[in-house]
Amino acid sequence: MTIWFENDKKLPQGRLAAVSYGIVGLIGLLLFGFWNLQVLRTSYYAGMAERNRVRSIPIIAPRGSILDRSGRVLVDNYPSFSVLLLRDDSKLTASLLPQIADGLGMTLSDVQTQFDAAKSLPDFQPIVIKPEASPADIAFIESHRPDIPVLEMMMVHRRRYGENDFLAHAIGYVGEVSTEDIAASGGRLRSGDVTGKSGIEKQYNDALMGTDGLRRSIVNSVGKEVGQLEQQEPTPGKPIRLTIDYDLQSVAEQAMAGKMGAVVALDPRSGEVLAMVSHPAYNPNDFAVRIPRQEWDQLNDDPTKPLLNRAIQAQLAPGSVFKIFETTAMLESKAISPDFKVFCPGYATFYGRVFHDAEKPAHGEMDLHDAIVKSCDVYFYNVGQRLGVDRISYYGTALGLGRKTGIDLPGEDSGLMPSEAWKERVFHEKWYPGETISLAIGQGATEVTPMQIAYTIGGIVSGGVFKQPHLLMSDQPAPEVDFPISESTVDFITQAMYGVVNEGGTAAAVKLPGIEFCGKTGTAQVISTQGKKNAKDKSGLNNHAWFVGFAPRRNAEIVIAVLVQGGGFGAVGAAPIARDIVKAYYDKKAGTFTNPQEYTGNPQPAAATATAQAAPAPAAPPADPSASGETK
Amino acid sequence: MRERSGIRDFDWWMMTLVFAICGISLLEIWSATHASHLAGMQWRQVLWIVLGLVIMLVLSRVNYHTILYQAPLLYMIGLAALVAVLLVGHSRFGAKRWLPVLGEFFQVSELVKLIIIVVLARFFSEVRTDRLLLSDLIKAGLLVGVPVGLILLQPDLGTAMVLVPVAAVGAFLAGLQWKHALFVVALGAMLLPVGWHVLKPYQRSRVTTFMRPEDDPRGSGYQILQSKIAVGEGGFWGKGLGNGSQNQLGFVPVRYSDFILAALAEELGFAGVVITLALYMALLLRLVQNAQHAKDRAGMFLIMGVTAAIGFHVLVNAAMVIGLMPVTGIPLPLMSYGGSATLFVFLALGLVMNVRLRRFVN
Questions:
Q1: CA A117/CA A101 separation, integer angstroms
Q2: pLDDT exceeds 90 at position A299
Q3: Which residues 5-64 on chain B approach chain A with CB closer than 8 angstroms?
């Protein structure tokens, strides 16, 4: 052996010892590192491990079904699958979006938009990217679990609404919660949840919705499910029963087919809404699955406003229906003798301006009863002038005009009962006496909704007891507003409205044999209510037909308000619809109701006779001026 | 010169520690793989251990002076192998590290580690001064620098890094002067930005995600994060063998190899980690003790080279598992599954045994 390593035993013992200390020190440092993770921060990492291995997929609670007054199903659910996008790991999810879009047959921009929109939500909340999964989608998700571990399926219950647009506006529709909804719900709502967006679905959402459960499964690192944890069962939403009568609703829907307007049928004794139609309507089933943006825009931009619930949101001049309010004011205030008579030459002159009556030849001498039956404008011009705007406004307001009826639906409009103070407040202008003349026959600024008409007329003919209309069946009596009306006034008004239908009045054509069907026609002028901007549109110039009817004459059981926009004269456009519903109502009571089809487009022999008897009706058209002060 | 040493002169303390660590390793490899398609892997590791023991025995019979004498030749062979692997090596995971030998792929750099330990022991034992001269330090630096450069070309940052502490510990024991140490550290600091440009993109991302692993949890930060979760979730007593969800569900990356300590930490808890690291500490201190009793400086340098390499592996691997160091692919000696790495450790321990067996000779 060579010399270079011989006899060299002088070892650097000090430095070797230093290396030993170094080893102990470094191992100590490592142990401190493990102590930090395993003892000090173990709960933090345990939580992360839990999130790693446990995948939570909501089990959607089925929404409560909606029943009619006798328990018939109006709305229920059907099972379906939604595709969930997991975002625990948003970078991974983002990188997989093109594959996901491709596999689910969606556009990348659609997927990307949804993903971006959810950026503000916590990462552990999955989002629904495709609401209705096809069998191909399901196969795609199952077969790509290892390479696309961010897709999951969730069983959901979709809303199944009635055929076509049955009761669409009253029931409303459901939709996915918006980001704002989630923020406002205080943790109750999550992304992809379905909530009521309008109508009953919105009003009673809390009862209908129930509480979602949670399916918790153990997944491995490639997203494959390897086990199940105890699952949190969902609490289904409660079913609710409406006051709607399926049969009457069907009759009303059919009677309104192809028309624009609304029908409200109430039981004035309880406030129960028996039927409620708004046309044109939309198909709520389109909303059950996520509605495409384009379709939604179309519904919103549609000039016929299919999303508008005309029963509570169409605010129009009441036309001659208003004469009932004026009569009540006249009799109750005792400002004018009930024997007050006016000679009707077909027109009248007030404040230097000529106000025409709709009817020519002239009515001749009119008393109050005949003026209602024939709907004589000249008579009521005089009454209006003598009562004055304040008195009319006082009674109109007291009887329920200009305020919401309080029906259990979101978005009800209040209508408008003008007064001197109102005009001062809104327009900073004085009330012109000529306006009172228009007001007297339901033209001018006055606006009412069909719901209001049914509610107020129902209250008046029930002696001033105004039951709050409601759609939810309840054991409790509905709240009421009382404005007592004397027995003699009620008797007089119901007698006159009986005459409108049964004594050759403006609605003689809709007389029903054996039924004390009473009513009042109205024709609201478009030009004065919708403004002159529509003047070029010929169809828009067609008058709105009103009819309010009830039966029987005393202690009315049903009151019906009908509005047909562009329906022309109330007697022709609106009254037959009310007649059909009343007929169906009585047939149901008698047990002879079979099929709603029998009531529509299929006039009863009796009704046909009535039409024949009232042959002069078109020649001597009912009600309402063809020109009022407003039209100039 | 006759060798009078026998099996009874073996370092049985050291072997006990080695077997204890291997026992824990087999247990954890079993636990990490028994429920997967890799089941039975522990038996292959047993084979590597047995093969390692045989090689260790053989190596311990060859006088280390003979080996040191051949250092220049070994150095040439080492460099040639590194060049060969760059030219004809087998690529895995984007790096050329493997040469096919006997139907298995061996990581050449594992062998080069050993050669460098031998070469540096020879070099430093020839330094006659008490204080290491700057010229000698530079020579040592060049001796290590060339293979480091070749290994970096593979690229294998981890193995290249291991050579640095081997040289550093050697220089320290050879009488490194503090001013030189400061100079080298300062030089290293200045070269760091240059080194950054030389790094491959995957190496850069490993460094950046090491700094902020939460930035990219599914990408390169995924491994570190999942490892930390496993360690942290283990708590003090652990989830029990075979019960760690991070381990069993596959969230811990290469849980039977580079990240086996994370799997162990999850299932056996802090208690298991303390025992394991204590075993490593005892093993390293036992190696230092052997160095202290070496017959000559050459033997001491040989043992301390091995100590530095094994100690560095333990330090870097454990620190990586708890997120204190970037992922460099450095396995935990005797614990991680792997043929080349296991054989390297036993070869290295064979050198130690060799030195020990000759401490009373002459």
A1: 16
A2: no
A3: none
